């Protein structure tokens, strides 16, 4: 039942591309030994920028660990889908975003939210269902939004965000803006019709969208093997005449190197791209998933943590290249723990929205007391 | 057939133990492809097998609406009765668990709005078993709307075989001053409210649990209202075009002369489901709101 060779498979994930562009014949070994930190897109990073990547990855980790405690204390309700183990994916890709780039994802959305610069306070408060939350406590953990940061959510229905991602990209092209949209989804989400329909549209209409499959090997308790007939998910792009690449998700520099190609191509050529990033989630599907050591082995989880923990991987890289000292790394870690702790306090002390808020944000006219005067009944109360 | 129904025992453990017992042939884990597997179930049923499709949440049936609302409901009609679709689509359809708007739908009204489909909403374990058996044996597509909050409740259920027929309501409590008509978990909350109304306000309330939304037991509703002369309708649906909008129409049309007060309602506060726990608990019907409205209806 356990997808025990998933870890092996991720070790073997080779960077591939379909097109004429300089073919990279990466094999198992070279993929493993490539130092992505020296790739041009990473080499140009300043010391501060590298530290910022580390801060983001650590911040996501500490924030989520704190939210888990709050959930276990009953402060957070509903579902809590933790991103722990996958942090380098959102961090790497978001770090490449330019002014006109936009991003949208599914319910496992805390990492992307913090990476685009949402505050721990507004995110934690949202999970606590408080008025000070990013969505006033109306959306919860699965529905973080920050349009001011080009972040269009947090979506609860599997793959439902993927056509929206294409829509963001369509609008960019329509308005003549040079940018791309990033639409994240999981390895289970690829089997929704809406995603496959969207792949076709994106390619047919040359829409600058980059689909990012965060392949963590499982959709809830179902391993990739048991849900997809073709396990190489990126290959689906071939059926739509779309470019694709596969890479590992534990090394933020690898993510950046590969995603940069996809995003640049989308921006420059108005072409969609399908990226499959092999990653891993440490926790259950959601915190309520008590089975998560039944459909996979403990060893599988431990092995990934030991060899590929994204927090540790970047830390070792930055220590090795002299960007950080052990003390500085510790200090950042402590800062992020404190920030997460403070966000829990902020959330706890924040008020719940008044009952009247239940019926706001439903219709624009009603909220804005529209000049054109409201005609007709908008709400039907008992 | 459904997501995580076999090896994982069901996201809410409804199918626990069935895979061990019946194996891969009868318990089938699906990819997250609701449109495909519900359509597949419809096709398979045409050749006489009786698929039971689980929607992990009824909310997720929304990505399969064409299959369910076009194919399941109209194949029989459009073939002039040549084709039958004996499938069951079941899964939780409720709010009250702070999972936000996309996961809290109660679409029994939408299903009932499609002639050809049937829909039941068990409020307790006894009915859940009896209605499920009836649904599987039924020759038409039947939706069974469950409730994750009721999964945690305990009731005695006979081991032996029994059926709860579709289209037969259940009187949970007899009374003479007011009729509350309700279904699903709201029927249980209404029953609690009825007890409080009796103890604290000396009001005798009859509680009718619909059990089946389509077919609908009009007769029991009307008999009760003609006896008490007052009706309060309670459902978790949003009010506009909710199940109770239809029931209200039936009562005014067929029992108008018996009514001593307008028909009253308690439904969800008319907005997408809010996440925040305190607010969601206020948004969906609760005992306090039911009692308040009952007193208004009696005033
Ligand atoms: C249409 C729909 N079906 C089912 C679900 C329930 N569900 C939520 S997440 C999930 C698994 C998704 O797995 P994957 O796409 O791999 O993403 P991951 O959770 O691994 O990030 C399922 C079945 C849903 N939210 N929406
Ligand atoms: Mg997954």
Overview of this protein structure:
Helix content of chain A is 43%, strand content 8%. Chain A is an alpha/beta fold and 382 residues long. Chain A has one domain: Rossmann fold (3-Layer(aba) Sandwich), CATH 3.40.50. Chain A has a 5-stranded parallel β-sheet with strand order 1-2-3-7-6, sandwiched between helices. A two-stranded antiparallel ribbon of chain A has the order 4-5. In chain A, helix 11 links the parallel strand 6 (243-248) and strand 7. In chain A, helix 4 crosses helix 5 (87-94) and helix 8 (161-174) runs parallel beside helix 9 (193-204). Chain B is α/β, with parallel strands linked by helices and 299 residues long. Chain B folds into 2 domains: 18-151, Thiamin diphosphate (ThDP)-binding fold, Pyr/PP domains (Rossmann fold); 170-298, Rossmann fold, CATH 3.40.50.920. Chain B is 39% helix and 13% strand. Chain B contains 11 helices and 10 strands. Chain B has helices at 18-26, 34-46, 65-78, 108-112, 125-137, 148-151, 185-201, 218-228, 243-254, 277-283, 287-298; strands spanning 52-54, 88-92, 118-120, 142-146, 170-173, 178-182, 205-209, 212-214, 231-234, 264-266. In chain B, the strands form 2 sheets. Chain B has a 5-stranded mixed β-sheet, with helices on both faces. A 5-stranded mixed β-sheet of chain B has the order 5-7-6-9-10, sandwiched between helices. In chain B, strand 9 (231-234), helix 9 and strand 10 form a beta-alpha-beta unit. Chain A binds chain B through residues 1, 77-79, 126, 129-130, 135, 137-140, 142-143, 155-160, 188-189, 191-194, 219-222, 226-228, 291, 295, 352-353, 355, 357-359, 362, 379-382, and chain B through 3-4, 7-9, 11, 29, 31-33, 35-36, 59-60, 62-63, 97-103, 238-240, 264-267, 269-272, 274-279, 282-283, 293. The site of magnesium ion has 6 residues of chain A, from strand 4.
């Amino acid at each position: 039942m356990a997808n025990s060779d998933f870890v092996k498979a991720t070790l073997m994930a080779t960077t591939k591309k379909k097109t004429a562009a300089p073919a990279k014949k990466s094999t198992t070994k070279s993929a493993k030994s490539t130092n992505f930190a020296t790739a041009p897109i990473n080499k140009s990073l300043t010391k501060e920028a590298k530290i910022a990547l580390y801060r983001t990855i650590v911040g996501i980790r500490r924030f989520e660990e704190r939210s888990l405690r709050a959930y276990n204390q009953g402060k957070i309700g509903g579902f809590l889908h933790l991103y722990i183990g996958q942090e380098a994916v959102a961090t790497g890709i978001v770090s490449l975003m330019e002014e006109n780039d936009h991003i949208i994802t599914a319910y496992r959305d805390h990492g992307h939210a913090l990476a685009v610069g949402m505050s721990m306070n507004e995110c934690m408060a949202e999970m606590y269902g408080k008025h000070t939350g990013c969505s006033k406590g109306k959306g919860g953990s699965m529905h973080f939004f920050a349009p001011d940061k080009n972040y269009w959510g947090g979506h609860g229905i599997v793959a439902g965000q993927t056509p929206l991602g294409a829509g963001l990209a369509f609008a960019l092209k329509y308005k003549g803006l040079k940018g791309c949209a990033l639409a994240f989804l999981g390895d289970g989400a690829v089997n929704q019709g809406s995603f496959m329909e969207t792949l076709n549209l994106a390619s047919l209409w040359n829409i600058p969208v980059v689909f990012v499959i965060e392949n963590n090997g499982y959709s809830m308790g179902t391993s990739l093997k048991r849900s997809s007939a073709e396990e190489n998910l990126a290959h689906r792009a071939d059926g739509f005449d779309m470019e694709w690449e596969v890479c590992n998700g534990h090394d933020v520099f690898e993510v950046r190197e590969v995603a940069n190609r996809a995003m640049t191509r989308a921006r420059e050529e108005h072409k969609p791209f399908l990226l499959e990033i092999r990653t891993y989630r440490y926790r259950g599907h959601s915190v309520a998933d008590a089975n998560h050591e039944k459909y996979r082995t403990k060893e599988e989880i431990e092995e990934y943590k030991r060899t590929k923990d994204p927090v540790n991987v970047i830390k070792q890289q930055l220590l090795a290249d002299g960007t950080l000292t052990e003390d500085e790394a510790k200090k950042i870690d402590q800062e992020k723990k404190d920030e997460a702790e403070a966000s829990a306090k902020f959330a706890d002390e924040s008020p719940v929205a008044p009952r009247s808020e239940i019926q706001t944000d439903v219709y624009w006219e009603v909220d804005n007391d529209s000049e054109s005067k409201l005609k007709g009944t908008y709400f039907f109360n008992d | 057939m459904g997501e995580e129904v076999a090896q994982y025992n069901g996201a809410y453990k409804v199918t626990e133990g069935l895979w061990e017992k019946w194996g891969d042939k009868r318990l089938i884990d699906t990819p997250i492809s609701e449109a495909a597997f519900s359509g597949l179930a419809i096709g398979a049923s045409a050749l006489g097998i009786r698929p039971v499709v689980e929607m992990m949440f009824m909310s997720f049936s929304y990505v399969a609406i064409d299959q369910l609302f076009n194919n399941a409901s109209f194949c029989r009609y459009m073939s002039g009765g040549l084709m039958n679709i004996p499938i069951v689509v079941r899964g939780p359809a409720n709010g009250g668990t702070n999972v936000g708007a996309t996961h809290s739908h109660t679409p029994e009204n939408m299903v009932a709005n499609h002639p050809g489909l049937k829909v039941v909403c068990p409020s307790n374990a006894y009915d859940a078993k009896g209605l499920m058996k009836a649904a599987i044996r039924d020759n038409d597509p039947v939706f069974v709307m469950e409730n994750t909050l009721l999964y945690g409740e305990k009731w005695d259920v006979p081991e032996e075989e029994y059926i709860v027929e579709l289209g037969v309501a259940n009187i949970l409590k007899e009374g003479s001053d007011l009729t509350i008509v309700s279904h699903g978990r709201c029927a249980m909350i209404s029953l609690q409210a009825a007890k409080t109304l009796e103890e604290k306000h000396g009001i005798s309330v009859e509680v009718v649990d619909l059990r089946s939304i389509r077919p609908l037991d009009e007769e029991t509703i009307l008999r009760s209202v003609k006896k008490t002369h007052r009706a309060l309708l309670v459902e978790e649906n949003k009010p506009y075009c909710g199940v109770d909008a239809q029931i209200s129409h039936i009562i005014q049309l067929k029992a108008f002369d018996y009514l001593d007060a307008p028909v009253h309602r308690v439904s969800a506060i008319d907005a997408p489901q809010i996440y925040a726990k305190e607010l969601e608990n206020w948004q969906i019907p609760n005992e306090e709101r039911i009692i308040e409205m009952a007193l208004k209806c009696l005033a």
